[in-house]
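Lab notebook: predicted structure, single chain.

Context: the supervisor wants predicted structures on file for every construct in the current expression panel, including those that have not yet been purified. This is the next one on the list. No modifications to the sequence; it matches the entry in the shared construct table.
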Amino acid sequence: MKEKEKKETIEEIFSRGIGSFVDPDGKFRKKLETNPEKVVIKLGVDPNRPDIHLGHAVVLRKLRQFQDIGCKVIFLIGDFTAQIGDPTGKSKIRPEVAYEEIKKNMKTYLDQIKLILRQDESVFAWINNMDWFISITDLVFDPSRKVVIKDAEGKSITVPSNTFVGKSAEYDIIQRQKLFSKEIVNITTRTFLSTLRHITHSQLIARDMFNERIKKGEELYMHEMMYPVLQGIDSYVLSKIFGSCDLEVGGTDQHFNMLMGRDIMKMNNVFPQAVLSFELLEGLDGKEKMSKSLNNYIGITDEPSDMYGKVMSLPDSLIGRYFELCTFTSLNDIKKIKEELKKGILHPKDAKMNLARQIVEIYHGRDKAEKAEEGFIKTFQKKEIPENICELKAQAGEKLTDIIVREKIVSSKTEFRRLLDKGSVTNLKTGEKIKDAHFVPQEEEEFRIGKKRFIKIVF
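Prediction complete. Output recorded below exactly as produced.
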């Protein structure tokens, strides 16, 4: 990248969607401008759920810009901390997530980020914090599991994985930090307690969410209070493994946790990371932040037609914000779009069609974006049934409710009943609104569920 392009990219990074930036002495910014190839940037994620949505992509797309000027991004998967659960934004304790589910989600995350982040070793590495938060004896395997090791004479022998020798071999296999450093870091109870000696109770309960719980008389558990400390330790460990951890990025809801990383690095005589937090993207409801648990999200692997339709369902008030956080449209062009919307020169529907086309193109390519737009026009403007209607196989006598929920067209029977009550389920052959939760299709029939979902029942 040429020097002029690099400067423009840096200006773009720090002028778009920024919540706050902590770099008191300006050393991170200076290193970024003079030696970007030596900059190490951390993004930590807990794989509690499998999907990456546009809210996550706000941060990932910023990281791609950092990569494009030569910085190395460390994608830290919190497979250990995910079992605790970040209490950020939660008024109640998070439910525990089974490790097998976490492992599946890890793989999904790594597959999905390839849509945004470069994967070449010079600018990317991934690692999981189970690497330093567990020891050999913490490992537990199925009694029948075995592992192959070398004996004193170099011969291969098979031993049970649940023995100490077997666990040592398994531990060596799963350790990723050895790929990046000769020094293996392990956080023991002793090192954890030595960190806590420098952190006060008042520091931790300063978090707004903790204060709110205390005021309401609600329970606040110790493992939740330890979460920011564990996240901070991650930054210190990464600085040891990769030589530095210059910047941590995340949403504004992670600001407290990221600042804890600075404190822990300072107490360990490591130069503290800068902190860059990004504005949170509102979900489809236009109120809460985008979240899978609130079912107000657009996944980056959603089908093109679904992605397009979801963008078109956005409240008009979010058009400018989505252009800024989810597209490559220049800030000058976004300013013009906002002005034309305000003056009534540009119709919100036309602006959203432009927005939807751009977002689909980013994740699926131009051809699929154009086809999604054509499908939307045919279906919603010309009132035609889409060509690629979703076919659901059913058994004779099976209720429509059971078919819809089984095939995950809706998340639950309760949600489907709400759609029935609103008159949002239509038999396209007869034009009849389905109201009966016990309705059973008698032949191959097509239905519209809500505004944008079309299905065909096939026996």
